[in-house]
Design goal:
Blueprint lengths: L2 H7 L4 E3 L5 E3 L10 H10 L3 E6 L6 H13 L3 E6 L8 H8 L14 E4 L8 H14 L11 E10 L3 E10 L2 E2 L3 E4 L2 E9 L5 E2 L1 E2 L4 E7 L8 E5 L2 H45 L4 H18 L1 H9 L1 E8 L2 H11 L9 E9 L4 H10 L2 E5 L5 H10 L2 E5 L2 H14 L4 E20 L2 E16 L3 E6 L2 E6 L1 E6 L2 E2 L2 E3 L3 E6 L11 E10 L10
Organism: Pipistrellus kuhlii (Kuhl's pipistrelle)
Pfam families: EF-G_D2, GTP_EFTU, IF-2
Family: Belongs to the TRAFAC class translation factor GTPase superfamily. Classic translation factor GTPase family. IF-2 subfamily.
């Protein structure tokens, strides 16, 4: 096999070496959002190939992957990539990894380090050989006989074939007609295909395989077990559902017990607060207190109800949906728009999704999925937004923008001019004495139609409008820098003092931005 052929093969799942041996690669995304997917991959694999860029060094995701390997107790082979670049520094990478207990053979440890280039294909064969060598040293073997055991890597729904899973077989040999159980779903294997989409009749340990025949869609990470019959599969599923129900009942009872303790504590505090008052009197007092609190906060409730973004999430595979839900879970709506997850699922956007979005006035987000022209037209008629993305951070950016659009605008003040009060006096209009300030404009200009505020000792003591603005005896609308003027306010009770500052300003509404940062 040439270096170019090996490089092309490594983009797939299985690599065949000249010796006849095969390596199955389970590639997990390096993006920070796919942490759960990397953790799940570490639990399935026998050897982790840790890829670190020679020009970037150890990154946050590198440290996280090392921790996954330690948690799963899986050995590491280090692949230092981009060694073809001029700024590459493989030795720096090895030294940085020492801080995380990854000690390469050059430094007296047991971790093999291979300098590679994904661009040129340099040393990819050496990386494959290092992996095979480590597998032989560790005597990594699997039993091809007995009942099948495996793990669901991904699951999705295909329009023509129904629920489909991609899986790794870890024990036994999977054949057509086998009865499998995964999570709370079961399958009678109708069809299997390899990483190239070609039908296969058998799947051996370490072989990646697509499985068709599931009655329901299992979740990524579910353990696959072979059972002897459909009846046995139903028993297993029923038992697992029963256990789940019992767990829910237990959690509900615990919640009831917590509420009971809270009520007991509230009753004890009531006795301390209200003494020997009759229960009717206590109830009336509490009602008055609740009524008072409700009257104090009607505006807050309206704002919270209006600042809400209901969303529907659809993804191509179970792992993608899981990743997006994990990102949504990082959102905290304590001080801004509320994010409400209405529905999520695997597969293309359906009419039911559009109907749900219409009912909740929500937005549909699709990741690596499609929507038919008919569904799109229906959504347009119903005023439902459908947003499709193929890059995870683009979806998150779109979600941030949508959240920001639901927030009330921020009012920003822009100073037009400032004037210092040099003298104070009053004029008589009818029976009224009106305070007047003699000012000199220090910055900008004063415009009568704008808003004004009076500042004294650094604090704002008045905001409002002017009733008059004069230059000498003439009424004017604008006074510029360096000019003197006399002015009066729309609040006659405010007294001017020499040294006060009059600020002319205007208010501009600026779109608000959500403070939510998912952390990648």
């Amino acid at each position: 096999m040439t270096v170019e052929e090996l490089a092309r093969a490594m983009e797939k799942d299985t690599v065949s070496l000249p010796s006849g041996e095969k390596i199955t690669f389970l590639d997990t995304p390096g993006h920070a959002a796919f942490s759960a997917m990397r953790a799940r991959g570490a639990q399935v694999t026998d050897i982790i190939i840790l890829v670190v860029a020679a020009d970037d060094g150890v990154m946050k995701q590198t440290v996280e992957s090392i921790q996954h390997a330690k948690d799963a107790q899986v050995p590491i082979v280090l692949a230092i990539n981009k060694c073809d670049k001029a700024e590459a520094d493989p030795e720096k990478v090895k030294k940085e990894l020492l801080a995380y207990d990854v000690v390469c053979e050059d430094y007296g440890g047991d971790v093999q380090a291979v300098h590679v280039s994904a661009l040129t294909g340099d040393n990819l064969m050496a990386l494959a050989e290092a992996t095979i060598t480590l597998a032989e040293i560790l005597e990594l073997k699997a039993d091809p006989t007995g009942p099948v055991e495996g793990t669901v890597i991904e699951s999705f729904t295909d329009k023509g074939r129904g629920p489909v899973t991609t899986a790794i077989i870890q024990r036994g040999t999977l054949r057509k007609g086998s009865i499998l159980v995964a999570g709370k779903s079961w399958a009678k294997v109708r069809l299997m295909f390899d990483e190239n989409g070609k039908p296969v009749n058998e799947a051996y340990p370490s072989m990646p395989v697509g499985i068709i025949g599931w009655r329901d869609l299992p979740s990524a990470g579910d353990e696959i077990l072979e059972v002897e019959s459909e009846a046995r599969a139903h028993e297993v599923i029923d038992w697992r559902k029963y256990e789940q129900e019992q767990k829910k009942i237990k959690e509900a009872l615990e919640t009831v017990e917590e509420k009971r303790k809270e009520h007991q504590e509230a009753h004890r505090k009531d006795r301390e607060k209200y003494g020997n008052l009759h229960w009717k009197e206590r109830s009336f007092i509490k009602y008055q207190e609740r009524k008072k609190q409700k009257l104090l906060r009607p505006k807050e409730k309206v704002e919270r109800d209006s600042n809400m973004l209901p969303i529907i999430i659809k993804g191509d595979v179970d792992g993608s949906v899981e990743t997006i839900l994990n990102i949504v879970d990082t959102y905290d709506a304590s001080h801004e728009c509320e994010l409400e997850l209405v529905h999520f699922g695997v597969g293309d956007i359906s009419e039911n999704d559009v109907n749900l979005a219409e009912a909740f006035h929500g937005v549909i987000y699709g990741f690596n999925v499609n929507t038919s022209k008919v569904i799109q037209e229906t959504a347009t008629k119903k005023g439902v937004k459908i947003k499709l993305h193929k890059i995870i951070y683009r979806l998150v950016e779109d979600l941030q923008e949508e959240l920001s659009s639901r927030l009330p605008c921020i009012v920003e003040e822009h100073t037009v001019g400032e004037a210092s009060i040099l003298a104070t006096f009053s004029i008589t209009e009818g029976k009224k004495k009106i305070p007047v300030a003699g000012c000199r404009v220090q910055k900008g200009q004063l415009e009568k139609q704008k808003k004004f505020k009076l500042i004294r000792n650094g604090g704002i003591i008045w905001k409002g409008s002017l009733t008059s603005l004069k230059h000498h005896k003439d009424d004017v609308s604008v006074i510029k820098t360096g000019m003197d003027c006399g002015l009066s306010l729309d609040e006659e009770m405010i007294e001017f003092k020499v040294g006060d500052t009059i600020v002319c300003y205007e208010e501009n509404e600026v779109p608000a931005k959500t403070s939510w940062d998912p952390g990648f």
